Task: structure prediction
Amino acid sequence: MARRKKLYEGKAKILYEGTEPGTIVQYFKDDATAFNAEKKDVIDGKGVLNNRLSEFFMKGLTQLGIPNHFIKRLNMREQLVRAAEIIPLEIIVRNVAAGSIAKRLGIEEGTPLPRPIVEFSYKDDSLGDPLVPEEYIAAFGWASQQEMDEIVSMALRVNDYLSGVMYGVGIKLVDFKIEMGRVYEGDFPRLIVADEISPDSCRLWDIETGQKLDKDVFRRDLGNLADAYTEVARRLGVMPSNVTHTPTKPTLIN
Result:
């Protein structure tokens, strides 16, 4: 497709002006970053895999009636999404202690949490995306109390969906993060799931072996990141089961 005006470039995606009013073209890059971009690399095929996996998950949310920004996939690296006013928060849902919560609370990584925990962090890389309580969110006007309640409810529904889908293919959903945006119908704002859902934004462990199938492979130098993402795609049926990863040309189902 012809290139349009670039609106924003982040660590893993580029956003372009959409093909229709109120839309955005989301381009998935091969760039991999960790530790607030202190560690960087380019992983051939990563953008293709994340595009297809995010499409798979967003379509699943749509089928369950969970509103999201996905409209359609345009090609192997791009999808058309609905433009939204992004709330400056990352919504983190945790099922198992890992990463920062294990360090903060001194919990052994891999310990199941008593129930899913929803956390909010303020989206600002220069600050390290700090955790924020609901009082801050309301005080600074990032979201109303009603919106926060709706965000938590939607995040837990997404968790139920992702946990079930992953469990069905032998993967444990440890945690994930999503973003929410507002779309307006007249003067009335409606919340939708935005950004992406992919192994970049989830922790995924093999149920039997504990093998990591997410960005921790890159963070901790545990192997080939594209191979890990390809395995997730293969199990979910996004890739044929008889195909192995070829770094420069991932083979995906159309």
